[in-house]
Design a protein that fits this description.
This protein has about 250 residues and is of the alpha+beta class. The protein has 2 domains: about 35-70; about 75-245, Umud Fragment, subunit A, CATH 2.10.109. About 20% of the residues lie in helices and about 25% in strands. The protein has helices at about 35-75, 125-140; strands at about 75-80, 95-100, 115, 150-155, 160-165, 170, 175, 190-195, 200-205, 225, 230-240, 245. Strands 1, 2, 3, 4, 9, 10, 11 and 12 form an 8-stranded antiparallel beta sheet that branches. The chain is elongated and about 75 Å long.
Length: about 250
Amino acid sequence: MGDRPGAPEPLASPSPHPSIVSGDADPAQVPSASTPPDEEHREQAEGSSDWGFFREFGFLTLAALLIAILIKTFLIQAFFIPSGSMEPTLMPNDRILVNRLAYRFGDIERGDIIVFADPTPSEQHRGIVGSFIHWLGEGIGVARPADDDFIKRVIALPGETWEMRGGITYVDGRRLDEPYVNQADLDTRSFGPETVPDGMLFVMGDNRNHSGDSRFPPPSGLGYIPIDRVIGQAFVIIWPPSRTGWLH
């Protein structure tokens, strides 16, 4: 908001010397000891303006907070990368943005980098009010999510058969071209073959030797990921400045 406009100037100032017509001064012309009317109006206007400012400021703050929570919940959410399981694509301390609408209007595809909630969530008993308060706390960043979120790359889709032979990945018998895998520390182990169950995804980290993913059942890994646990698609690195760019 701009500076508050000054109070309007008075139309006339009371005379300091009232006229004397007879021995007694005219009561109508005797200066009043009370605050002049225009001064009272100015004080009232200033008080009203102050209250209006704080009321408007509070409304705008609340509206901005609500918009931020809605954006984070339904549109775009920022995430912090804490580990090296996705190196070299994502490095520890990277900040990324995730499109939460990506799979409301499209399908998950092989090669997508997805963020998903813990596929084996813990039970919560907060009740309706407690759940709302916790959701609100998450929205403004003062409460941690009930369960951890994870980020991996989609390798095989429901109904597809995956296999790793000496570190080379095959899906339905075809070798995948995986330029994103960490070439400095290749994983040469073999896994599978297995078929991805309906409604599930097979995911792996790009740093295969240091990723607990769908190759391993819990608690050493994540197992298959239910599609309904997917939060969204990671699409850009926003921090640090030296690493900003689109994700592929």
